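Example record

The entry below shows one chain as it appears in the dataset: sequence first, then structure tokens.
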Amino acid sequence: MDFFQAQNDARRNTNRFVLLFIVAVMVLVLLTNFLVMAFMGAFSAYFGNDLVTGRYADSLLASGGNSADILSWAFWKAFLRVFDWQMFFGVGFIVTAIVAAASFYKIMALSSGGKVVAEMLGGRLVRSNTELPSERRVLNIVEEMAIASGTPVPLVYVLPEAGINAFAAGFTPGDAVIGVTEGSIRHLNRDQLQGVIAHEFSHILNGDIRLNIRLMGLLHGILIISIIGSYLLRYRSSSRGRRSDSTAATVVLGLGLVVIGSVGSFFGSLIKASVSRQREYLADASAVQFTRNPDGIADALRKIGGFAEGSTLESPSAAEVSHAFFANGVRSMLASFLATHPPLGDRIRRIQPHWNGEFLEAGRQADEIISTETPEPVANQSFPFQGAISPAVADIAFAMNNVGRPQQQHLEYAHALIDQVPNELIEAVREPYGARALIHALVINKDSEVRRSQLEHLEKQGDQGVHELTARLLTLVDALGNQFRLPLIEISIASMRQLSPSQYQLFKKNLSVLIEADNKISIFQWALQKIVFHNLDSGFNKPSVFSVTGKYSALSQLENEIGILLSLLVHAEHDNYKDAEKAFNAAKRQLDNIHIKLLQSSIINLNELDTAIDRLALLKPLLKPRVLKACAASITVNNHVSVIEAELLRAFSAAIDCPMPLLLNPLNKG
């Protein structure tokens, strides 16, 4: 259940998948070569009269051989005649180039993230300000889980499917989407739906969604041979009435390519099955850990088993996305061998070992059986610890131990936080204009002169209506408690993903101007900017399609970057150099054999810090916790944690793709 181990396993699965993909391409090359050589051999045998009338044919006839023997001999003789290594490697190069081009095309088509997958399946975006109770319930669950886990709120799509199913797709948490079928909304109660969505969040947090989209792209390359064969057969059908030897040859070649494509399809299914099954068990276990309610996800699985429609989807694209679903989305004759998901019974028994084998009926509307229990806020709860450690420090330790795997306490606290936000503010951030206005309001200066110039800039340069809404929200934002800032930012990110590219670029430009209006950037402003741009850029600029993960295998490769990060963190709270040095040394003790030194605050460049964090994000997963523990050690050395330190720690954690859950205890002021 360890987040970093799960990330490492996802990378290892990627390597295994690439190896299987290479083997599949090699098999396709061999089979295509055989088809081409056989095709040319048959062609030569059919038209080469010298073979049929030659002395070998005469000897066969003299010994009593029939015409079938002669044709078979002629075919293999012709096959051997046309075979040569130059042609073999030429065909291999062409097949490899076609597969690579098709894979590249598909990956580029998916480069916009999860929304492309959702739309391919016929999904409809659920607007954040929807008034439909069933859709509002889904959005509330997704919002609570995202805030609890420290990730941006994913967009939600509803698929027009009767089956009970769901999926998560995207390259990063910043461009992820969650899709649920109409059958899930109609037939699952809140607890069951929460279990399903928690399962999908596990795929987002553990890096499975990136692997799934890359699988779709590369497997499309394997299937391209079959697509070409089908095209040739359709071309032959359109040529009826013009019978000729060339069209007959086209049929033979097309059928051969379709057969080879079927082999490619088999390999694709085998690869998906080998990569996907264990990840589903992990996601089920993560969902139980997140919700602390094994009955929720288990009953959702039992309801699928007792539902006539099951989890099957009717979309023509369902087979292509089958490995990303919550449960098997397509029927297969070899389901037990090539299924992308374990059998329902096995999954249920892992969650409920004493399950009696009975499934649930799915006839009633979910709204009739929604749980009416409201989680109690846990903001003031504390956790057992030894000695005189402050609750805030213990909370940091608890959050650090649950990076990427939030607990029920975080989910309940997220629910409580959303309930405490003023209605006008929460409604505003659930749509793109209000989301931009909130982010602008969070960086507006309290100094009256600076504030006036910032608002004047928005009035002249901002989109119509954003200035007025920002000014109206300022009073609410000024009175907002610090614990609400990051959750509201995470909701805003989902809303701003609905902006057009030009609107997003204007937003980025205006935000930078507002931050620099007083000729300095505060630590909070930098953290806000880093979180927002880190998550939105991946959706608008598409930088993550071919990004390399796990590039650095040793902390010693990034000593300079770690030094910059820790120096900024300790200077953010300590004006006295000796106090800063004490905190820095506490962090350094967590990093054995790393030679770093404390930098003066005056020489720390925020642009260099951005670059440093981007490079730290490329560390291998099992090295990242050491960096985060060093950060935590630096801010807890004095047995208290300030708001600035906590926000910086969560910003760093999110920026290196290690989302830290909510902090549950009140922090020291600062």
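Notes for this example: The chain has a mean pLDDT of 80. The radius of gyration is 30 Å.
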